[in-house]
């Protein structure tokens, strides 16, 4: 059986849940400065949150880049 994934805009109040996801990945996000940059992006940039069972299971953030494109930052 597959889990249902809902996607919605990322909200600043999602920050703690996103921080917990990043902290669970120490191999890739072991540098404090990287975790701080991600935490700031989650709270300031546009993004999407993926939810399973009503809980955030993943996220991404982006910023405008040039006139017609966006860069995925986290």
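^ Assign residues to that structure.
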């Amino acid at each position: 059986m597959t889990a249902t994934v809902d996607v919605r805009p990322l909200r600043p109040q999602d920050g703690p849940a996103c921080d917990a996801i990043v902290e669970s990945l120490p191999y890739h996000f072991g540098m404090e400065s990287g975790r701080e940059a991600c935490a700031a992006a989650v709270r300031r940039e546009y993004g999407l949150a993926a939810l399973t069972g009503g809980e955030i299971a993943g996220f991404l953030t982006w910023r405008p880049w040039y006139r017609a494109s966006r860069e995925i930052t986290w």
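The mean pLDDT is 88.
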